[in-house]
Specification:
Blueprint lengths: L2 H20 L3 H4 L10 H19 L9 H6 L15 H19 L6 E8 L3 E5 H25 L5
Antiparallel strand pairs: 1-2
Helix pairs in contact: 1-5, 1-6, 3-5, 3-6
Length: 159
């Protein structure tokens, strides 16, 4: 797959995420409906943190998001356990927008780079190149877009 197509997919997916964020109020963002573990805000933050963890971690570069976001939005965290105030939707929007621009800047021309030891997703999948991790990260963001839609439906916001 050509590099430009991977970046276009990434931009398409992120544009959809930002549109969903634009259609979310601060009040809606923190509701955790019955049967759910997280909120809409958590899912937006998790998308941001996941990209940083995977891509910056793969290249062993410093993350470009506030460090406390990791504690709030990492895998296996929940808003029910938050001890600090989460960022506003405007803050998340700013970081998500900046991240997409930074990805092109930092990673363009590098998608074929291999890591000495592949990133392992449990025992079922390994990612050897940055490009492979990009495509996984795009899929993961889409997965959380679905979670956001489900959370909105559970609140009666979307059909």
């Amino acid at each position: 797959m050509k590099e430009e197509m991977i970046f276009k997919q990434m931009e398409f997916v992120r544009t959809r995420t930002l549109k969903a964020l634009e259609a979310t109020t601060e009040e809606q963002a923190d509701v955790i409906p019955e049967g759910f573990n997280n909120s809409i805000r958590w899912n937006f933050g998790h998308i941001l943190v996941n990209h940083e963890n995977l891509l910056a971690g793969f290249l062993q570069k410093e993350k470009e998001i506030p460090s406390h976001y990791i504690d709030l939005f990492n895998a296996r965290t929940s808003p029910r356990d938050w001890q600090t105030e989460p960022p506003s939707l405007d803050e998340l929007r700013m970081h998500l927008s900046q991240q997409i621009e930074a990805m092109r800047t930092h990673y363009q021309g590098r998608l074929e780079e291999e890591r000495e030891s592949p990133f392992k997703l449990g025992s079922i999948m390994e990612f050897s190149t940055l490009g492979e991790l990009f495509t996984f990260s795009n899929w993961h963001e889409g997965l959380h877009q679905g979670a956001i839609t489900s959370l909105k439906r559970a609140q009666g916001i979307e059909k």
